[in-house]
Amino acid sequence: MAYFPEALIPPQFLRAGESGVVSPNERSLLKLIWRHPGLSRSEVTDHTDLTQQSVYRIIDQLAERGIVLLGSPKPGVGRGQPSPTIRLNARYAYSCGISVNTDVIGICLMDLAGNVLSESSVTLREHTMAQSLDLVRARLVEAQKLNNLSAEALFGIGFAIAGYHVGGTRYNAPLPLHEWSLIELGPLLAEFFGKPVWVHNGANTGSIAEAMFGVGRYIKHFAYLSFNYGFGGGLISDGELLLGGNGNAGEFSGIYDAEESKHRPALQYLIERLNRNGVDVPSISYMRKHFDRNWPGVTEWVDEVTPAYNRLINAIRAIVDPQAIVFGGQIPSDLAQMMVDRTRIYDRPRYGVHRPGPKLIISEIASDASAMGAAVTPFHSTFY
What we know:
Blueprint: H1 24-35, H2 41-45, H3 52-65, E1 68-73, E2 84-88, E3 94-100, E4 104-111, E5 116-123, H4 129-146, E6 154-161, E7 164-167, E8 170-172, H5 185-193, E9 197-201, H6 202-213, E10 222-227, E11 231-237, E12 240-241, H7 258-261, H8 267-276, H9 284-290, H10 298-319, E13 324-329, H11 333-341, E14 359-362, H12 369-382
Helix pairs in contact: 6-12
InterPro entries: ATPase_NBD (IPR043129), ROK (IPR000600), WH-like_DNA-bd_sf (IPR036388), WH_DNA-bd_sf (IPR036390)
GO molecular function, one term: N-acylmannosamine kinase activity
Protein name: ROK family protein
């Protein structure tokens, strides 16, 4: 039987007498309010095809349910009686994002308005899957207590894992995560946590985080490069995640054959190079925190992966034509800049005119983007 997290949403969050959380019109208004918090109620009408009467009625219904809050009017906006401002009610619900990488599990709690309430992590080394989940649940309970959050207000869980999608909620993860691979994660995790669980590839949730909290605030079409133990990514088209026919759009490592794959920009190979050069780097998380571009082996590794990297950049440019390519995942910003500096665009101008190309942008999300994206996914999938 197919697994659908929407069927497990707690009843208190559902519309009266219906199975959904919000109607299509309510969702479109909530998406607008997410993007523009503090809009006045009268201003909302200018951004939709709905009548003013319909907008006011929908907003009043959302306010009555506690999903949005009406605030003080903006001075000098509109005619007649001042119109209240509107914001998502942060206290209405919160979610938990869990991102499983090869060395660490990132955990992020987020409220409905997109505020990060808590961030923590669990080391994976020498822990079984069951032990790791017990540790994650303990961190969740601890964060709930510290933030005075009730278990009932937990809307759902977003879960991200490194690896490509196989079918349903099954993913094929790298060797360090073999125990997590090729099993239906959705129903297993939903039973463990007692909440609906939305499952994604980690690079996809990183892309979602970038779309909602990073460059996506001003760029609607971009490719996201996720540098982790392996190397993958995601595609954002018109502000939304593009999954593709099999759920694997953005699996950029797929363009390389077996030999070329060893020279792609996967951070596992950089760590191996550093360790051979006498630099003790126990994990990717450690490398991100302590990275030094002058470590012996860094420049040599970047030079080695540059041809494969440049071929990918040009393939993305030619096939996807994004406005930007974002360097994200777990890559240190200094290392990302080294790769940007080595970028070569295979452009052949015609009549002296170059074909427009994407901007190369290093992500400014300093925390675990994959966990952040996982945390916002339950809300993004249902409310906005």
